[in-house]
Design goal:
- A six-stranded parallel sheet has the order 2-1-3-4-5-11, with helices on both faces. A six-stranded mixed sheet has the order 7-6-8-9-10-12, sandwiched between helices.
- The chain is 44% helix and 17% strand.
- It is an alpha/beta fold and 331 residues long.
- It is elongated.
- Helix 7 links the parallel strand 3 and strand 4.
Length: 331
């Protein structure tokens, strides 16, 4: 790969002049600048980003720290983040924490070592004061995405209202009992049970919460629920992957969907409409979240003195399909 020194020799100008041109300095003779840029392009010049960062220049790198890169929802989100980054001359470095706090810490250390200009993060646990203090101590522009973290710039979906939409939907579809698959600290759960409580004050007498991800235990718990509540059950899973897992178990147990069970997932990933039955799911505004998160991050990068914190809640929308609507008709 050609170096600045070699470009200087080939173009007949000094190495400092080449450096100024390639770093975007406009105060160089236009004819010289064009000659240097042409030579650099012709020989495939690539800047040493780490060297530039050590010298105090921008790396043009954005870190993106996700909890589960295998989830199709995050793949879709990253697509839009990369589009916005590229429009502004940036590249992404992608990290996956697998919902592990220790690994999240390691990712943050790598972000520091690479001297990224800023980073976006889907936190493992955003509620602790210690975690928020850690993010601020890095002194790197950061935006939390898909979750709300108090005291930090956040672009997120109102999960409480999203869960409430599911609760209202399953109630209106006439289900007799309810089942939630996920963690009770999740705002989706809080919204789900909050809406059901308003519509059916006695719903908890016919309600089951399951948090295990173990397939055998999950099947056992679902079977136990139907033995206790043999009527029609409305089920809400915290994401589409887990909804698919439940759908497979229901089919194995001979429980009809939506005749005996109504199933709703979360994320509205591409597979939902192609399943049979098609899967009802909550759709998040991925592109809008990506655009806003990048907008906030670039603002912080360009104006690091601005300490104002912004929170941008966005609304999700339930997409009802065959898995939860008894009389659903495909278009």
């Amino acid at each position: 790969m050609i170096t600045m020194t070699e470009i200087a020799r080939l173009t007949g100008v000094s190495q400092p002049t080449v450096s100024r041109v390639l770093n975007g300095n406009q105060a160089v003779n236009p004819e010289v600048r064009e000659r240097v840029i042409a030579c650099a392009k012709a020989h495939g010049y690539q800047p040493n980003m780490m060297a530039q960062s050590l010298a105090g220049s921008k790396t043009r790198l954005i870190g993106v720290i996700l909890t589960d890169i295998s989830n199709a929802f995050f793949a879709d989100l990253v697509k839009y983040l990369e589009q916005e980054a590229r429009k502004n001359g940036y590249s992404l470095i992608l990290f996956n924490t697998n919902y592990d706090l220790g690994h999240e810490q390691e990712c943050l250390e790598v972000v520091q070592r690479y001297r990224v200009d800023g980073f976006l993060i889907v936190p493992v646990q955003e509620e602790t004061a210690g975690w928020r203090a850690l993010i601020r101590s890095l002194d790197i522009p950061a935006v939390v995405i898909t979750r709300q973290a108090r005291g930090l710039d956040s672009v997120y979906v109102d999960h409480w209202e999203a869960g409430a939409q599911v609760g209202r939907h399953l109630f209106q579809e006439g289900y007799d009992s309810y089942l939630f698959f996920g963690n009770e600290v999740d705002q989706k759960y809080q919204g789900f049970v909050g809406a059901l409580g308003e519509l059916d004050p006695a719903f908890e007498e016919r309600f089951t919460k399951i948090s295990t991800k173990d397939p055998a235990v999950l099947e056992k718990e679902i079977k136990k629920h139907w033995e206790k509540y043999p009527g029609r059950t409305g089920i809400f899973a915290y994401n589409d992957r887990r909804a698919l897992q439940i759908l497979g178990i229901l089919q194995k147990l001979g429980i009809g969907v939506p005749g005996q069970a109504g199933l709703v997932g979360f994320d509205n990933t591409y597979m939902c409409e192609y399943l049979y039955p098609s899967l009802s799911s909550v759709s998040q505004p991925n592109e809008a979240m990506a655009v806003k998160a990048m907008e906030l991050l670039f603002h912080k990068i360009e104006q690091p003195e601005d300490r104002h914190v912004e929170g941008w809640p966005m609304q999700a929308k339930l997409i009802p399909r065959e898995s939860s609507v008894f009389n659903y008709r495909r278009a």
